[in-house]
Amino acid sequence: MKTEVDFWFDPTCPFAWITSRWMHEVEQVRDIRLTFHVMSLAVLNDGRDLPEGYRAAMDRAWLPARAALLVEQRHGSEKLREFYTAVGTRIHPGGEPVGPETVAAALAEVGADADILDVAKTDAIDDDLRRSHNEGMEPVGDEVGTPVIRVNGMSLFGPVVSPAPKGEEAGELFDGFVKVTSYPGFFELKRSRTVGPVFS
After folding, report:
1. Counting CB atoms within 10 angstroms of each CB, which of 23, 58, 59, 102 has the fewest?
2. What is the per-residue pLDDT across 40-86, written as a single tens digit (0 to 9) for each?
3. SS3 196
4. Residue 20: how many CB atoms within 10 A of its CB?
5. How far is CA 5 from CA 67, 107, 181, in A?
6. Contact criterion met (CB below 8 Å) for 19 and 147
7. What backbone torsions phi and psi does residue 160 show, to the nearest 5 degrees?
């Protein structure tokens, strides 16, 4: 029987991106069903007192999160997965700016409705975005960010990895993640991160 894995991401987070690539590796070596969902760092940080630079990043983060949710709503979960790969590849290893041109190119690449960009520039679906965000975040609290992974109904923030493990090493890390996630009394593991995002 396949292990159900739900993955909440914000398109602008480099560490969520790396973890998502790890999960793509896990699909090759473990019997899982991986489903992506949208959370939003902009929603998470809405109303918080933030440094100017980070506030600007959160203002930019609304557009790709809204676009991702619209892709899911109009085209389904598999197209959301394709869009995340397209836009994430452009933003993270590609180094393209988080903005309308990048989102438009990713929409075109996966064959999604072009007018999604226009809607994503407004707050028309922000209630839906907050619902999707809250579905992922409520089980883990608001002291963490993205990614959030739910395995067999149990959720945790992370793991934060850099770079993403490949092959059987990816599977072994997943096995350990499943074990700690399955214990309801488990809450936290952490060590200081000494490397930045490694996209290779």
Report:
1. 59
2. 999 999 989 999 999 999 999 999 999 999 999 999 999 999 999 99
3. coil
4. 23
5. 23, 25, 12
6. yes
7. -95, 115
Return the ∠ at Cα 19 (arms to 150 and 46), rounded to 5°: 75
Confidence of residue 152 (pLDDT cuts 50, 70, 90): confident
Q: What is the DSSP letter of 122?
A: S
Q: Tens digit of pLDDT for each residue in 182-199?
A: 998 998 888 898 999 999
- Give me the count of residues in the chain: 200
**Could you tell me how far CA 119 lies from the centroid of its own chain?**
21
**Residue 105's CB: how many other CB atoms inside 10 A?**
14
Handedness of CA 148, 159, 82, 43 (dihedral sign): positive
**Residue 154: helix, strand or coil by DSSP?**
strand
